[in-house]
Write a structure and sequence with these properties.
973 residues, Rossmann fold, 6-stranded parallel beta sheet, 37 helices, 24 strands, 47% helix, PDDEXK_AddAB-type, ATP-binding, ATP-dependent helicase/nuclease subunit B, nucleotide-binding
Length: 973
Amino acid sequence: MTAVFTLPPGLPFVESLAASLLAEAGDDPLVLAGFEVLLPTRRACRALSDAFLRLTEGRPLLLPRLTPLGDLESDEPDPAGAAEVPPALPALDRRLILTRLVLAMQAGRGGQTPLPDQALRLATELARLLDEIGAERLDPAGLAALVPEEHAAHWQVTLDFLSILTEVWPQILAERGAIEPAERLNRIVAARIAAWARTPPTHPIIAAGSTGSNPAIADLLAAIAALPQGRVVLPGLDTEIDEASWTALDPSHPQYGFKAVLSRIGIARSAVRPLLATPDPRAERVRLLAEALRPAATCEAWRDLVALPPETVAGVTRLDAPGPREEAGAIALMLREALEIEGRTAALVTPDRALARRVADELGRWNIRIDDSAGRPLGLTEPGAFLRLSARMVAEDFAPIELLACLKHPLAAGGRNPAAFRALVRRLEIAVLHGPRPAAGTAGLRAALKDKTPALTGLIDDLEILAGPFVTLLEAPEATLADLARAHLDFAEALATADDRPGPLRLWGGETGEAAARFAAELVLAAPALGTVAGRHYPALLEEVMAGAVVRSAWETHPRLHIWGPLEARLQQADLLILGGLNEGTWPGAAEADPWMSRPMRAAFGLPPPERRIGLAAHDFTQGFAAPRVVLTRARRVEGTPTVPSRWLTRLDAVMAACGLSFAEDTSQWLDWHDRLDRPGAWVRPSPPAPRPPLDARPRHLSATEIETWMRDPYAIYARRILSLKILDPIDADPSAAEYGTIVHEALERFLKAFPDRLPPDPVAELIAIGRARFAEAAVSPAVAAFWWPRFVAITQWVAAREVERRPDLAAIHPEVKGALEIDAPAGPFTLTAKADRIDCRKDGTLDLIDYKTGQPPTIREVAAGYAPQLPLEAAIARHGGFAGIAAAETARLLYWRLKGGEPGGEERSAGADPATLTDEALDGLRALVAVFDDESTPYAARPHPDHAPKYSNYLHLARVREWASGGEEDGE
């Protein structure tokens, strides 16, 4: 009798296997308990256990012994002598030792030494190569026989580098009394097979669900099939594929692995029997997909395809979403709908972790927590993010962004009440972190505070004390990873300490905290394997080490909804199965190049081609395609880039078109429903804001610059002067154009105050010296200075030339002088203030008013129309003697100096030919403007004249201009 069986994809695998075993056991519970069932994963073992309980309606049952194939040494008793097999190195120890070897090898070759995190990535790929070599039972010594001269020069260098595997790595394993994980599995399987050969087991042994892609597992399947009571159950073997296609199978085909396994067992495909007499309820659908995926060598058979009934694809739909967000939203809605039918189960199957996280987040809007078999990356959990952020904050010398990201984390408390701590952090942010970056470290923060706020100074002092040991190690040129990790964890625990709860309890508590604690313990234990690194490299190294750690939820997930990886879904079915992320490069994944060996080298060495993984992925897709109800989803664009549909979808489309088939259900409704979730029922176009504050709240004094804003955009005056709203500079901002203008203004002011009467012998050199000092005070970054400094130097050339030309006609120069003028108004006196950039007293008794502009000055037409009244209003103040130290006088010229840099460095423009008339009109216009706003019915409208609106305003978002403006108005143009 044959010992190899199969279950078709359309039958639920674990339920069918459980039903078969229950039927064989009959009413004797001891018979079932005597079975031993080997399954691919622990999750599959749990699924089979649940299937037994469902089929027996929960009555007490003695289950068979369920063993995952990858953990055979866990059996009790141990008939195979697994305890005598040397242990494998812990995974993190192995990666860190390989990282140290990569760093040492590169340093020994005299090349540029990679950063530790880069070396760790290379070491991870090297570990994967070791796993492949071990799984295929190859000898690393064979690498030397690859005839390096036949390969490109850089591959010859790589082969020399791989001497790690042949010379150094075996010695390290021997010193530690350990072996490779793959070699350990090989030995355990060999020991198990030898034990069975010596004493064949008397109980039934069933290996189910494995494709035998691992050679050791394939040997085990062959040994089980040869046992007197051994059975092998293959998932989804195609027993109807034509012989020509079977012969032409390539590694990318879903049946390729079965062909190798059957050959290893020594049984013909025709001898494989179905495990159950139950026919596949979706056999026609499975045949359609098998036809679509037939080997390329036999695709000419498509010319003979005939029309198929629509029922062939009944229950299968397809959704092509515009992007990942829409795809995830539609999937979440489908999963949510499944819960409306009692007992219905649904699952998303995808290798796309980003899609899985998006779907889980979308389900959160209904307070549904879904079970994700792959778990969440530790670095994205609360404690994992806190560990990353705390390390990055200290390594970046408490730079503003990193500081706030860490201290605003929910776990940060610094020994205080968490709410009070966050309030202090917000105060610190407002006090010193908006605008240009303070000097490095806690000393820089303290200097920026200038000891004005004892509470904030105390916060910085505490932070300095808590982080002190960690800071010392990070600043060291070399430190052991173990010391760095311990200092970092001590700092994280101290920073997480609250006034009512110790830091360790807050940091390591709960499901995610326990996972983070396990990771931290593994890191501390494995860290000595790497040795020393430069302290500044620790944060990037930590993130790379943490990249592979995940947190799996054990509780509070919905029992009827799941997210499965393709491997987990292979043996399980749900009433609704959504196969998501079906884009080329995602599912199937791209056949990525091996950084250590080229394709010819892999083939010559005996390693399987990368397409073997595509074949395994195709088999998982085939299994999922046979579920009762299937939805195939993909995103047309990802991050704005068009995507290519999965090759399986492309082939399926071609075959369906040839057979006259199409997906009947319109899935666009799911996209529409998702779009409507966050869309209001109706759009109401708002009106521009027009607040009318009471008269006693309206300002009674404004500057000349504000008068211009008052005319162009009254709402900005309302927000600034009545609501007292002040714009905050960006955090850690480079100096902006406004800061550049301030630097130029102050440099010219210092020059004029230093040389008020007589110019120095070399005015250009003096201006440059003053500018260099002012740039240094502003702590302008090198990148910004490289752009601004040449412009400033060009300005000095032009200004010096103008000074030489103007000085003979001047009696005095007054830079940055303040003035004021009071006028009568309906609601009482109104005060106009101004700070003139420069007022030159001419020898004839008149004045020149000069306004510096590092940007574009207003046109003569704008000044004449009253929309740029700054200089005429300053002339009105000067006429009435309002500037301190300057006698009342008429203004001869109103000038703009456009200090633009370049060639020439500046230009002089007149504000108008008749300053006296402009002054009269500006003063009359001001009186009229004040009178208008002294009427409580006059609103402070937002941009009442769009054509004359200011080019920029800090209050556009507050006025919600984008909601009611049209055309270029929303950009302030």
